[in-house]
């Protein structure tokens, strides 16, 4: 069966301790920042005009294929299909591993994870499928016992190769007060299998004490490397007492000297953005991020900081909140900003990647997404899951599509639903470089009938290149049955092709 055309191999969704029924992940006493009862759903978008046949292979942590499933019903051209819960593909019981999706047409896919925090709050997160993998990966944000909400990180690393490998994870603190240097972990992983690394509960660290001491704190990044040059893939969960965020590990090919951050919020009805930029290089570099505001959504500004070799630094969070960076930033403190960000100066031309965290403390929302390499941008980006008025919390999506080319472009987003209405496209004309089309999908439903579908956004013009991200947000925090939404903010990256 042909692999997805825009990906180098089968699409991998690395599922971290996901349950296909009602299960509890931990049998020991529940920590305040742990999660339990995780369930996963998958949204697959067919990027071809012809119908696609999808096949799924679930591989557990021992490397055993526990389920093969081929959907007997093809996904129509330029449409999408939801597989939630995953017992719809015949996978039942507790599962911690990876899901490999193959198709005879080009496809894109995301995973949505729903769980319960250690304090009993419903939480959710979203991330995109990974293809191919790499022998080394960067995880820009790793946390243990961080902040008032006690953020911890759990991640799965999958052996995407055909031979056994030993994985070494090295942890790098972001600052002198952020944890001990020299911490590392290792794990032997069979082909197709995965291993789980949990900063809250693991005791297998060597070379340090900060990640093994009860109550110890760590904030920084990590590198993941395989023996034998075996390709790896990774998915990361950031969990707190009330939040769940997710992102995927970065291969060297995803790095850029000028990465893009398509959606940046500050002081926007409680929404705040933190950008954790990691330096994959061997030389310290001075990085300037230029922030471009959407129309009527703030003022353009810049921020400059040094990112040390092999380490990471937080941007945006302080720049829009106070003036502690002095002359190194000129962003208006406490003023609303909605737009995008781009690294415009990288003094040592080092390879950079970043994770962008979005939080709303008032609503206890949180989500994360990965930065973009501008060299991989195209004139078309696909968004596998678009929602409006969906479920008892009336979840809708918001899209931000950024022009990363050198000239003005027109952007049009066409929607496709799994059944029912076909909404009118959204468009923006004359979008300048760094500018964006920002749209809240609040008009796609008909009456009380929810919209569940996908979208394709296309740019036309000189050097037409775009990237995009999607937020999933509930309109209701409390449903009619009295249930509470909890952290139902989810974010994923669009797929360029």
Describe the structure.
The protein is an all-beta fold and 497 residues long. It has strands at residues 11-19, 35-46, 54-60, 65-70, 80-83, 94-103, 107-117, 122-128, 130-131, 136-144, 152-159, 165-173, 184-189, 194-198, 218-226, 232-239, 244-248, 260-266, 271-279, 285-293, 301-307, 312-315, 337-346, 352-360, 365-370, 380-388, 395-403, 409-417, 426-431, 436-440, 451-461, 466-474, 490-493, 495-496. The strands form 8 sheets. Strands 4-3-6-1-9 form a 5-stranded antiparallel beta sheet, with no helix packed on it. Strands 29-28-31-26-34 form a 5-stranded antiparallel beta sheet, with no helix packed on it. A 4-stranded antiparallel beta sheet has the order 5-2-7-8, with no helix packed on it. It is globular. The chain starts with 10 loop residues before the first strand and ends with a strand.
């Amino acid at each position: 069966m042909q692999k997805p055309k825009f990906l180098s191999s089968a699409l991998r969704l690395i599922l971290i301790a996901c349950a296909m029924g009602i299960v509890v992940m931990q049998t020991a006493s529940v920590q305040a920042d742990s999660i339990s009862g995780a369930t996963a759903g998958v949204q697959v978008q067919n990027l071809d005009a012809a119908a696609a046949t999808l096949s799924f292979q679930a591989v557990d942590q021992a490397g055993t294929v526990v389920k093969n499933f081929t959907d007997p019903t093809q996904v129509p051209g330029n449409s999408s299909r939801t597989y939630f819960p995953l017992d719809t593909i015949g996978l039942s019981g507790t599962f911690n591993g990876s899901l490999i999706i193959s198709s005879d047409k080009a496809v894109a896919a995301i995973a949505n994870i729903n769980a319960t925090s250690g304090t009993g709050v419903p939480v959710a997160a979203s991330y995109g499928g990974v293809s191919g993998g790499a022998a080394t990966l960067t995880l820009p944000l790793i946390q243990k016992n961080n902040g008032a909400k006690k953020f911890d990180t759990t991640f799965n690393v999958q052996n995407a190769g055909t031979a056994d490998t030993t994985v070494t994870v090295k942890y790098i603190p972001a600052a002198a007060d952020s944890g001990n240097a020299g911490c590392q972990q290792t794990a032997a992983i069979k082909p197709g299998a995965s291993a789980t690394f949990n900063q809250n509960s693991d005791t297998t660290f060597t070379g340090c004490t900060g990640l093994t001491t009860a109550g110890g704190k760590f904030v920084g990044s990590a590198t993941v490397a395989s023996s034998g040059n075996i390709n790896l893939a990774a998915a990361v969960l950031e969990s707190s007492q009330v939040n769940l965020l997710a992102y995927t590990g970065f291969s060297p090919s995803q790095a850029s000297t000028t990465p893009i951050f398509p959606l940046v919020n500050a002081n926007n009805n409680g929404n705040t953005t933190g950008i954790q930029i990691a330096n994959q290089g061997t030389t310290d570099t001075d990085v300037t991020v230029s922030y471009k505001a959407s129309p009527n959504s703030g003022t353009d500004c810049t921020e400059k900081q040094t990112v040390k070799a092999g380490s990471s630094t937080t941007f945006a969070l302080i720049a829009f909140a106070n003036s502690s960076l002095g002359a190194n930033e000129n962003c208006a403190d406490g003023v609303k900003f909605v737009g995008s960000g781009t690294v415009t100066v990288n003094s040592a031309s080092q390879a950079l990647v970043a994770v962008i965290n979005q939080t709303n403390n008032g609503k206890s929302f949180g989500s994360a997404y990965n930065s973009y390499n501008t060299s991989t941008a195209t004139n078309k980006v696909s968004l596998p899951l678009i929602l409006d008025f969906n479920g008892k919390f009336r979840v809708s999506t918001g899209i931000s599509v950024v022009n990363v080319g050198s000239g003005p472009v027109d952007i049009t987003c066409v929607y496709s639903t799994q059944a029912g209405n076909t909404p009118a496209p959204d468009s923006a004309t004359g979008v300048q470089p760094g500018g964006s089309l920002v749209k809240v999908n609040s008009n796609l439903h008909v009456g009380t009938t929810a919209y569940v579908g996908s979208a394709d956004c296309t740019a036309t013009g000189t050097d037409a290149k775009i990237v995009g991200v999607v937020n999933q947000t509930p309109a209701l925090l409390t449903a009619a049955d009295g249930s509470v939404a909890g952290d139902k903010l989810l974010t994923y990256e669009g797929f360029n092709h």
